[in-house]
Write a structure and sequence with these properties.
about 15% strand, about 170 residues, binds flavin mononucleotide, 4-stranded antiparallel sheet
């Protein structure tokens, strides 16, 4: 599947079948994270692959997350392991952009593997950090449910190019 095809296939799926994600497919998704761009190529990332049902249950219950956290075969947790106070010249924090790109790469690779995903940022970071033993100084930016969807709802409408693109001027 080419990249645009994977992009067109991807949508946020919030209900999952009780089906294991094959090791080879998971590895492809993690490989995409490994290849993602990062500021100065520092690669200050740790992706925690959560498959243990007990841990997923704890994250759902103690970190106030959603049912897909428990249902999906895998929960990916994107942790920034480098400096979190570095403002780039553009005024944005580098680690947030790094983690966002890594998350996006994972979503697209998953779509290419016939897997479904949903980004999850509605969680209590401190609670997730405690459950997963993430060091205090690190930040969890995002998580993603990864598995086989059980959800036939249509993909949400997207704006047309004419609404989001302009050329040479705003
Ligand atoms: C930064 C970010 C945070 C999100 N957090 C959640 C979340 O906590 N729970 C959820 O169900 N979806 C979450 N989503 C998914 C969005 O709701 C979804 O991408 C959006 O509705 C567009 O749908 P699509 O992904 O199917 O194109 C998040 C997406 C982004 C980019």
């Amino acid at each position: 599947m080419d990249v645009l095809e994977a992009m067109r296939r991807r949508r946020s799926v919030r209900s999952y079948a009780p089906r294991t994600v094959e090791e080879e497919k998971l590895t492809e998704v993690l490989e995409a994270v490994r290849l993602a761009p990062s500021r100065h190529n520092e690669q200050n990332i740790r992706v925690i692959v959560v498959r243990d049902p007990q841990i997923k249950k704890q994250i759902r219950e103690l970190a106030d997350t959603q049912s897909m956290v428990e249902e999906a075969g895998v929960l990916l947790v994107f942790c920034a392991t480098g400096a979190t106070n570095f403002l780039m010249p553009c005024g944005q924090y580098g680690y947030v952009v790094d983690m966002s790109l890594a998350t996006g790469f994972a979503l697209l690779a998953a779509a290419g593997q016939g897997l479904d995903t949903c980004v999850i940022c509605a969680f209590h970071e401190e609670a997730v950090k405690r459950i997963l033993h993430v060091p205090d100084e690190m930040r969890i930016v995002s998580m993603a449910a990864l598995g086989y969807g059980d959800d036939s709802s249509p993909r949400p409408a997207k704006k047309g190019l004419e609404e989001i693109v302009s050329y040479d001027r705003f």
